[in-house]
Design a protein that fits this description.
The protein contains 20 helices and 25 strands. It is α/β, with parallel strands linked by helices. Among the domains are: 83 residues, no CATH class; 93 residues, Immunoglobulins (Immunoglobulin-like), CATH 2.60.40; 167 residues, no CATH class.
C-alpha cells in the first residue's frame, strides 16, 4: 500500500503549513494537558503520533483559552497561570454532579479571611445545610487579590434529582450552582429479569405504505411496530428523527440534523391530524392531489426524494394548520408551546427565518438577525406554524409508542441519538456560545479511512456545557425519551472525548478533547432513569480499553456486531464469547444488508466508485476469508448444513437465505441481553442504506426497503412476508 509522506506513522510532528511563533512545544503541551486537550494519539499501526503546536493552539483558542497561533512563549506561560486561576475565580463549581450514595467534597472560593456557609436547595423545596471539611489549602493570589478555599461535603444520602448549591458569603452575597445527584447505575425494570429480549432495527423513511407521502412516516411506523410486536419483538430501533432543514435542499442523512431537540415534521401523516376530519370536500381533494404529487417518481429512480415529499406535505400541513381547532385542541397547543419555552420559540423563529432567506446558511447570526424580523417572529404566523408542526409530530410519534406497548412490546421504540448537529442549524444559531465554533468533529485516520473522517459538525464546548449545568444535554435526552422506551447513543465515546479538527485542516490534523464523562454519563443516567428507559451505547471503532468496562458498570449496554466480533487470530467469536451487557446484531446501518454483504457488495460498490485504497483483488480475498471462516463456524455449530472442510464457493441465491437465518441463530445464541435483527435482513434486501465514505456518489439514506430482486416491500409486504416471519420466529424461539 502506497502512502504519501505525511501519512507515514511516527514521522514526528504533523506538518500543517506555517509554524506558529511558539518554539517551546513542551509549554504548549503542558497548557493543552491542563485544558483537557490530548497532545498525542495512537495511529492504526500502533505508533504514537504527536499533535502539532499549531493544531493544539487552534483547539485551545476554540476552548476560550487566551492563546492563538501568534502567541509568544510568555503568553503561553501566562495562559498556564490563567488556567489554574480560573478554578479559583468562581465561588462554586460551575455544576456539581455526584453519584447517589457517594459523599463528595468540593471547593468554595471567597476572599481570603471571609466566612461562607453552603446549603443544598432540594427539588422539593427543602434545604440541607452542608458541613465544612477541615482541609487547609493555602490562599492564592488571583487577579491581584488573595482568594481562600474552603471545602464542603455533599452527603451521600441526598435523593436523586436536580438540586442547587446555595452559598451565602460574607456581606450576604448569595451564589447558586446546579447540583445533580445521579444514579450509580442505570437499572431499568425491563432488564431486571433474567429473560433476554429481541427486537427489530429499521430505517423509518425507507418503509413506505399505500398511504405514505413518498417517505415512511409515523403511521407507517405505528403499523410496523404492531407487526413486530405481534411476532414477539420487544423493541423497534429506529433511525434518528431529529429535525432537518425546513426548506430544500433537504439533508438526507438523519445523522446530520439542524437540532437534536426537535423532530422532523416530514414524518407527519397529514390525514391522521384531527382537523382533517373537519375539512370540506374541496380541501380534502387538494390534499389527495398533493399526496399523489409526493409519490410521483419523475426520474424513475425508485429512491426516496425528501424534497419532493416535504414540498407536497408542507402545503397540506398549511391547509390543516389554518383549519379551525376545537377548544380543547387549541388549549393543548397553547400548553405545548408554553412547555416548549424558549427552546421552541427559538426553533420556530429560526425556521421562519430560513423560509425568508431560502437556505439555512443564509440566516444571519442571531445577534445580527433583527433586520430579518426575528424580534417579533414569535407573533408571526410562520413561527406559529412551525411550533404547531412540532406539536403534531410529537403527538403522532407518541401514538407510535403507545401502539407498540399496547400490542405487546415491553420496551417499544428505541430512539437513536445523533452525535452532533449541522454547523448552520438552529442549535448553533440559538446558542452559539455552547459550541466550539471553528472546530468540527470527526475521527483520526484508521485502516478504513486513512485520511481520517470529518463529520462537519461543531462540537459542544465542555466548559460551556458545565457552566449551563448541562442543560442542552439533559433537555436533549428528555426530548429523545419523551416517546421512547430506550435510546441508542451514536458514538457514545463522544461523552468521553471527541476528535476536534480545526476548520480548513484535514482530519489527520486534529486531536482529542476530553469531556467530563462522569458528569455527562451521570446526566444521561438521571434522565434515562426518570423516563424508565434503558440506554445502548454505540461503542464500536477506536475505544479506550477502560471505557467499555466503565459503561457496563454504569448499566449502559454496549453494541456487538457479528462481523466485528473476532478473536485475536481473526476468527469469528463463538456465542459464548459475546458480552452480556450489549445489544448484539448481525449487521448495522453502516454495513450492507447481510445478503449483500455475503455477495461482497460493499467491495463491488467501493471499487466502482474509486474508494478502495488496496487492490480490489486483495480486498475481495479478505472478504472471502471472512465469509468462509464464518460459514465454517456456523457448520461447526450445527447451524448450517454441509461439510465444514469443503472449499467455499460464491454464495448463491439458493443458500443465501439459509446463511442469513443461520447467522441470526448464531447471534440469538449469545448471552447478550438484547438481540436485534435488521428489517432489511428480514425481507432479503441487498443494497446498503449508507455507504460510509461517500456523499453524492451513492444515494445514502434514500434507498427504500426492497427484497433481494430490488422490488419495494412496503409495510403491508412486511406483514405478509413469509421470509420475515421465519426470521422473527428464529429470534422468538431462541432469545429467552
Amino acid at each position: 500500500m502506497t502512502r504519501r509522506k505525511s501519512e507515514v506513522p511516527g514521522e514526528g510532528d504533523n506538518v500543517e503549513g506555517a509554524a506558529p511563533k511558539v518554539i517551546d512545544i513542551e509549554a504548549v503541551r503542558r497548557l493543552a494537558d491542563a485544558n483537557g486537550v490530548s497532545t498525542q494519539f495512537w495511529d492504526w499501526y500502533g505508533a504514537r503520533r504527536d499533535v502539532s503546536a499549531r493544531s493544539l493552539l487552534r483547539v485551545l483558542e476554540a476552548l476560550g483559552v487566551p492563546v492563538d497561533e501568534e502567541s509568544t512563549e510568555a503568553q503561553i506561560e501566562a495562559a498556564l497561570i490563567d488556567t489554574e486561576d480560573e478554578h479559583w475565580r468562581g465561588t462554586l463549581p460551575d455544576c456539581l454532579v455526584v453519584r447517589e450514595g457517594d459523599p463528595q467534597e468540593f471547593p468554595v472560593h471567597v476572599p481570603h479571611g471571609d466566612w461562607v456557609k453552603v446549603e443544598v436547595e432540594l427539588e422539593d423545596g427543602a434545604s440541607v445545610a452542608l458541613d465544612q471539611v477541615d482541609r487547609w489549602v493555602p490562599p492564592r493570589v488571583v487577579d491581584g487579590a488573595k482568594v481562600g478555599r474552603a471545602t464542603f461535603r455533599v452527603p451521600g444520602w441526598l435523593p436523586l434529582g436536580w438540586h442547587a448549591l446555595r452559598a451565602t458569603c460574607q456581606g450576604d452575597r448569595i451564589v447558586r450552582a446546579p447540583l445533580a445527584v445521579v444514579p450509580r447505575r442505570l437499572d431499568p425494570p425491563v432488564l431486571r429479569e433474567d429473560r433476554r429480549r429481541w427486537g427489530v432495527a429499521a430505517q423509518v423513511y425507507s418503509v413506505r405504505s399505500s398511504g405514505s407521502w413518498g417517505i415512511g412516516d409515523a403511521m407507517d411506523l405505528s403499523d410496523l411496530a404492531a407487526v413486530c410486536a405481534e411476532q414477539g419483538a420487544d423493541f423497534l430501533l429506529i433511525n434518528p428523527m431529529h429535525a432537518a432543514s425546513p426548506v430544500p435542499p433537504m439533508e438526507n442523512s438523519p445523522y446530520l440534523p439542524v437540532t437534536r431537540r426537535w423532530t422532523d415534521p416530514i414524518y407527519i401523516r397529514p390525514e391522521a391530524i384531527d382537523e382533517y376530519a373537519g375539512l370540506g370536500e374541496a380541501e380534502r381533494g387538494r390534499i389527495a392531489a398533493l399526496r399523489e404529487r409526493s409519490r410521483l417518481d419523475a426520474g424513475g429512480s425508485g429512491f426516496i426524494d425528501r424534497g419532493r415529499a416535504w414540498g407536497a406535505k408542507r402545503e397540506a400541513l398549511e391547509l390543516l394548520f389554518a383549519a379551525r381547532r376545537s377548544v380543547h385542541r387549541e388549549a393543548e397547543l397553547r400548553a405545548f408551546v408554553r412547555a416548549g419555552g424558549q427552546e421552541l420559540t427559538d426553533f420556530a423563529r429560526w425556521c421562519a427565518l430560513v423560509e425568508r432567506t431560502g437556505a439555512i446558511e443564509a440566516v444571519a447570526p442571531r445577534e445580527d438577525a433583527g433586520g430579518q424580523g426575528v424580534a417579533d417572529c414569535d407573533l408571526c404566523p410562520r413561527a406559529a406554524f412551525w411550533a404547531w408542526c412540532q406539536w403534531i409530530v410529537g403527538l403522532q410519534i407518541g401514538s407510535v409508542q403507545e401502539t407498540a406497548r399496547r400490542t405487546g412490546m415491553e420496551i417499544g421504540l428505541m430512539a437513536d441519538l445523533a452525535v452532533g448537529v449541522h454547523r448552520s442549524g438552529s442549535e448553533t444559531w440559538a446558542e452559539p456560545m455552547m459550541f466550539a465554533l471553528g472546530m468540527t468533529v470527526g475521527a483520526p485516520p484508521d485502516m478504513y479511512s486513512q485520511q481520517g473522517q470529518n463529520w462537519s459538525q461543531p462540537p459542544w464546548s465542555p466548559r460551556a456545557l458545565a457552566r449551563s449545568g448541562y442543560r442542552p444535554l439533559r433537555e436533549m435526552i428528555r426530548a429523545t425519551l419523551a416517546h421512547a422506551g430506550a435510546v441508542r447513543i451514536d458514538h457514545i465515546m463522544g461523552l468521553f472525548r471527541l476528535w476536534w479538527i480545526p476548520e480548513g485542516e484535514p482530519a489527520s490534523h486534529g486531536t482529542y478533547v476530553r469531556f467530563d464523562h462522569e458528569a455527562m454519563v451521570g446526566v444521561l443516567l438521571l434522565e434515562a432513569q426518570r423516563a424508565g428507559a434503558l440506554v445502548v451505547g454505540e461503542d464500536l471503532g477506536t475505544v479506550e480499553p477502560w471505557v467499555r468496562d466503565y459503561l457496563a458498570d454504569r448499566g449502559i449496554l454496549g453494541t456487538s456486531i457479528l462481523w466485528f466480533e473476532k478473536d485475536s487470530a481473526g476468527w469469528p467469536l463463538r456465542p459464548q464469547g459475546y458480552r452480556r451487557s450489549a445489544l448484539a446484531t448481525v449487521t448495522t446501518h453502516d454495513l450492507p444488508p447481510t445478503a449483500g454483504y455475503l455477495e461482497g457488495v460493499q467491495t463491488k460498490l467501493r471499487d466502482e466508485l474509486g474508494l478502495l485504497v488496496d487492490d480490489v483483488d486483495t480486498v475481495r480475498e479478505a472478504d472471502r476469508v471472512e465469509r468462509d471462516r464464518m460459514l465454517a463456524l456456523l457448520r461447526d455449530e450445527g447451524l448450517l448444513e454441509g461439510d465444514r472442510d469443503e472449499a467455499e464457493e460464491a454464495v448463491t441465491d439458493s443458500d443465501e437465505r439459509a446463511i442469513v437465518e443461520a447467522l441470526h441463530r448464531h447471534i440469538a445464541a449469545t448471552s447478550s441481553q438484547l438481540v436485534g435483527a435488521a428489517l432489511v435482513d428480514a425481507v432479503g434486501d441487498k443494497r446498503p442504506q449508507n455507504l460510509p465514505g461517500t456523499d453524492r456518489e451513492y444515494p445514502n439514506w434514500c434507498v427504500p426497503l426492497c427484497d433481494g430482486d430490488g422490488n419495494e416491500v412496503g409495510v403491508e409486504g412486511v406483514a405478509s412476508s413469509e421470509r420475515a416471519a421465519a426470521l422473527f420466529e428464529i429470534l422468538r424461539e431462541t432469545v429467552r
